[in-house]
Amino acid sequence: MLQTTFGKDAIKVAGSDHNDPGSNQHKISVPRPVPVIPERDTRLDVFRALCLLTIFINHVPGQYLEYLTHKNIGFSDSAEAFVLISGLAVGAAYSGKFVVGARLALTLKIWRRALTLYVAHIMTSVVTLAIFAGGALYFGRQDLIGEINIRPIVEQAEQGIVAMVLLGHQLGYNNILSLYAALFLMLPGILWLNAVGRWLLLALSAVLWLAAGWFKLVPSNFLDEGYWFLNPWSWQFLFVIGILCMSHVRAGGSLPRNRWLIGVSAAYLLVSGFWVVFSWWNIDFSFGLPAVLTGFDKTFLSLTRLLHVLALAYLLAITPLVSRLTRLQRNHPLVMIGRHSLAVFIFGTILAMAGQVLLFVTGRNPIIGSLFVIAGIGLHFVYAYYLEWLKEVAVAKPLRAA
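Predicted structure:
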C-alpha cells in the first residue's frame, strides 16, 4: 500500500522570471511516494498463541488444567484449530504472491520451509528420545521406554533410526510438525489450483479428503502395521479451507452473517458439547456410511470433527467482540508467542515431554503435573520475550554499523 502526502512545499511551481531564459516553463517538483507498511493484523497471532498453549497443556496428560481445554466440550481440539489457523496464515502470506513469473522462486521458498519443518520434527523426536531414555536411566524406570511408541525404536535400533528419519515411525505427541511439513510440500500445487479456480481447488481437496477416509489412504509406518496419526491426505482439506477463506477475504469478500448459519453452527456446538460431556459415544448414527462421514476419528479428520472446528471458527470470526479483544498491540505477550510459533512450538513440545516423564515417575500426581504446566506456560512467555529480544538485537546491529 502506497500513501503520498503533499505538504506546502511538496509541489513548487516556478513563476515567470524574465531574467531566466527558461522562465516560460513551469517546474514541478513532486516527491516520490513513501511506502507505508501496513500494521500487522495480530488476531491470527493471538489465536495461534492460544492454540500453542492449549497444545502444551494437552500434551501433559493427567493434570487438572487439561480439563479446562475445549477438547472436553466438543469434537475437535487444538490440533484442528492450529491447522486451520495455519491455512489462514498461509493464505495471507502466499496466495496473492503466487503469480506468473514468481511461482518458481516462491515454490523453492515454500519447500525450504518444509525442510525446516522436517528438521524441526527430527530434532524434537531425538530430544524426546533423550528425555525418556534419560528419565529411564536416572530414575531407574525402564518402563518409561514403553511410553509414546518408543519401544519399537529401542528394540530395532537400526531400522528404527532409519524409519524415524524417513517419517516411517512417529513418537506420540510428536506428529504435528511432520503433518505440517507434508502440507507445505503440497502447498505449491494448492496455490496453483487456487490461482486456476477456487471452486476447483475446494472440490479436488474434498475428493482427496473423502477418498483418504473411505479407502484408508494414509502414509504407513515401517516398524509396525500402523500409519501416521495425522493423515496429511485428510488434514489437507482443513488447511485448504483456511487458505480459501483468507484468499476470499483478501480479494474483497467477507464471511456472511447469516442468521440461519449462525443458528446451525451454535446448535452443532451445543450438541457436540453435550455429546462429549455425557459420553454419548455408544450412539450409532452411521446408517452404513463410512466412518469418515459419521465417526469421530482424528487420523482421517472425520466430518464430525471438521464441522465442529469450522462452526467454532465461524462464530468467533463474525463476533465483533472477539475481533476487538484479539486485536492487540505487537508487543503483547500473546502476539509474541504467535509470531514465533515454530520456535515456541518446539520449545513447548520438549517441555511437555519433560512434563510427561515427571508425571510418570511421580505416580501421575495431578497436583505436581498442574504446577509443572503452570510454570511451563510462564516459560512460554519468557521464551517468546527472549526470541523477540534476539530479533531486536539482530535488527539493531546493522543500524549501529551504518
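Summary: DSSP finds 15 helices and two strands in the chain.
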